[in-house]
Amino acid sequence: MKVAYVFITPRCASYKLGQMILPQLEAGTHGVEVIGMFFFDDNTFVLRKGDPIGERLAKVAREKNILLMMCDMCALERNLAEGSPRWCDPVTGEGLTEPRECHAVNTVEGVQVGCFPDLYNALAPNPPDQVISL
Description:
Blueprint: E1 2-7, H1 13-27, E2 33-39, H2 52-64, E3 67-71, H3 72-77, E4 81-83, E5 102-104, E6 111-114, H4 116-123, E7 130-133
Parallel strand pairs: 1-2, 1-7, 2-3, 3-6
Antiparallel strand pairs: 4-5
């Protein structure tokens, strides 16, 4: 079974990912194929360059071809991205028909920045069987 994780609750990336999921992925005992992880709010901080969890995660993601993506607006607010929100105008709040440029800065290797359309597009070639929100 293929799964994608969405980290939405406080501390779930540092605790549930860092102390449960990541060690299992490293040991090869997680039991499913993880194809993607999407990070919201302060959970994006584990993706900072030099963060012990983030560095370990980047290594596993590279080895197992796991998508690491963080919410564009969450990343911009936390200085982990540069550019503009990809799919909405930050002044009017209106949606856009073409994405704006936004890219990760000061993060571990391989992290992408996006919003739901970007996540769907990235997972489309190899869709998950289950999406798990933590």
